[in-house]
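On to our target:
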Amino acid sequence: MTFTDLNFAVVGATGAVGRTLLSILAERGVPRENISAVASERSKGIKVSYGDHGELMIKALNTFDFSTTHIAFFSAGGDVSAQYAPIAAAQGALVIDKSSKFRMDADVPLIVPEVNSDAIALAVKRRIIANPNCSTIQLVAALKPIHDVSPIKRVVLSTYQAVSGAGQKAMDILFNETKTVLMNQPSTENKLFPKPIAFNVIPKIDAFTSDGSTKEELKMIDETKKIISANIEVAATCVRVPVFIGHSISANVECASAFDLKDMHAALKASKALKLPKTADQFFTPVEIAQDDEVFVSRLRMDTSVPFGLSLWIVADNLRKGAALNGVQIAEAVYKHHRKLLRK
């Protein structure tokens, strides 16, 4: 059996991440007959495209049988994952979950394959693997090579997150709000963001917590510690910006020991997950990296405000590497190195 012989289910197939998952599986050469596109009962019968291989008919999640599924991708939100992921796992499927529901559970591995693929083995107990927050994925992909050169003590970061991180409705809101401003039309309804997003930035993603942080910021803090090291201190400010696709991060890293900038550059360049510019005066932006698979690192320089500091700029397509692609790469890592987790 090859990877493309496996049977896959994509739960949340009508959403932005679900559609991207289908596109990537099609790119990988998985036959259409090996894919089940699954969504809520109200979407049953809707057709979604499957790359150049035609269309798939949506099946209802509440009646779907996972007993022949090898790997089930869940990208339909935490409530859906909480209810149905354990059912899929009990029926023998290996679940790769995009939501935050299981990420901090001690017996559920939280995986970025280029960073901590060995932890996949922990999935043997519950048959669930968690996909990290989209911004966390690109952050830890860039931090791991740095941490290997000189252990990281602290990271201070600000994110610039595209609206697609909040789903297709958020992209529609940005489009409509931009049109109303440029064409001087009446304001459109916006129930998703607390303030207008067009021509604006919003320093609030998810709900506020008692200490003034947002849940998005706490996700980045907790997930970075779980994936790389509990000893790393993280301060995060997460901001929604009027960009359709592509999250960006400005990060200031404090290491525990002296390092050479050339060594850091070489370590980052050696990572298969990362792409660096050819010269120091080049940099990456969300517009140019959309649809690309790598995490893009630029503006690499010393941070002289601390003894052993480094500053960098990190950009990635949040729908691909930040969600769908990372999930597929987890599945590929399972097939290559942890095949005993798959049904026979």
Remarks:
- Residues 3-132+323-341 form a domain with the Rossmann fold fold (CATH 3.40.50.720).
- The first strand starts at residue 8 and ends at 11.
- Residues 106 and 224 are 14 Å apart (CA to CA).
- The chain has a mean pLDDT of 96.
